[in-house]
Automatic annotation (TrEMBL), chains A, B:
Species of origin: Nonomuraea antimicrobica
InterPro entries: Homeodomain-like_sf, HTH-type_TetR-like_transc_reg, HTH_TetR, Tet_transcr_reg_TetR-rel_C_sf, TetR_C
Domain HTH tetR-type: 7-67
DNA-binding region: 30-49
Record's keyword terms, sorted: DNA-binding, Transcription, Transcription regulation
Superkingdom of origin: Bacteria
Pfam assignment, any one: TetR_N
Protein name: TetR/AcrR family transcriptional regulator
DNA sequence: TCGATACTAGACAGACCTGTCTGGTAGCGT
DNA sequence: ACGCTACCAGACAGGTCTGTCTAGTATCGA
């Protein structure tokens, strides 16, 4: 994958689409709006993306790549601190002005069919998150890392939803306390 | 509110819309589809609902009323058992065949504007859930019922998302264990 | 110099969207 | 008998949707 040589027009489309999709939702943003905002001809758009759905899939995988890169840069030690830093970052991000919830969950909500490529891309991202949690927990010495990772995924999903729909300060406090209760005490 | 006398056509529209909206999303279902499936004339539809958005709002409040009625009927005692019964019910429901996530979260994902009437209806439902949790926790003797309720809301949101996107059996186990870790131990 | 690729502008098709409007029927309370 | 309300069928307007197509320009490697 990603064997293409770089294309400014394609990048502009993807960046613009990402901004609009996240802020307004997939179905609410038409191709015409995207190409107008990106300053790109329609033929160019359909040259790079066979269909709008393919653009959506590219949007999802691009967001996933961006998040992986961000986590990659967070090099706190030990693992327990890294885990808390990740949650702290999500809280900080969720409290920001333009926050509109989780791009993956919002997108999945607009794609009911679980077998749709877009949904598969979302599922892949979720698998990455869960495995990231599990690895950090295992490195931290949690003997039930698998189970705790599943719980942290629950917590993460609740977090991204809560920051979108509820009072950020309240959610922040709840997340902090929830982590205390969920993470096993150190020996 | 709800001072109208009953109307079969209106009920049929609301029931049909609810089914289609939940299964396919709001923006993916047009008014024409709804009235055709409900067997209702277009004029009748717009007689009962001033606009599609008003129908969506009615859909949200109807779902909320249905959930409240269901919880009302669950009369397990003591409060701790009732709380667990509610979560058990959500797990059972989430494992069912037609499950497509939480109607409120899916709807909110398609309405970015927090001030939109539809979003306000969603927010009201969430307030009810949180207060329900808080009251049950307080009755159960949790001194930090407010905070625990916030955490349970996080858990609930994670649950409804997880059952839609991940493996139900795994989520079920994670929810069970999470409750054990989150709920304060009995004296 | 040739040919492929990336891009531009914009018309067009065909479907679907919400919402309005016409015109007519049936029942019900007064 | 009258008027109100609920309902039916379906045409219509004006817009938006995705996707295709025509036609032409610019760049770059072989």
């Amino acid at each position: 994958m990603e064997g293409r040589r770089p294309s400014p027009a394609r990048d502009r489309v993807l960046e613009t689409a990402g901004r609009l999709f996240y802020a307004e939702g997939i179905h609410s943003v038409g191709v015409d709006r995207i190409i107008a905002a990106a300053g790109v001809a329609k033929a160019t758009f359909y040259h790079h993306f066979p269909s709008k759905d393919e653009l959506v899939r590219a949007y999802v995988t691009a967001q996933s790549a961006a998040q992986r890169a961000m986590v990659e840069e967070m090099r706190a030690e030990p693992s327990r601190d890294r885990l808390r830093a990740i949650f702290a970052f999500m809280c900080e991000f969720g409290s920001g002005p333009g926050y509109r919830g989780c791009a993956f969950l919002n997108t999945a909500a607009e794609y009911p069919d679980p077998a749709h490529p877009v949904r598969l891309a979302v599922a892949e991202h979720r698998r990455w998150i869960r495995d990231l949690f599990r690895d950090l927990l295992a490195a931290d010495g949690d003997p039930g890392a698998e189970r705790t990772a599943d719980i942290l995924l629950l917590l993460r999903d609740g977090l991204v939803v809560g920051f979108d729909l509820d009072d950020p300060a309240t959610v922040r406090g709840a997340v902090h306390e929830a982590l205390d209760r969920v993470l096993v005490r150190k020996a």
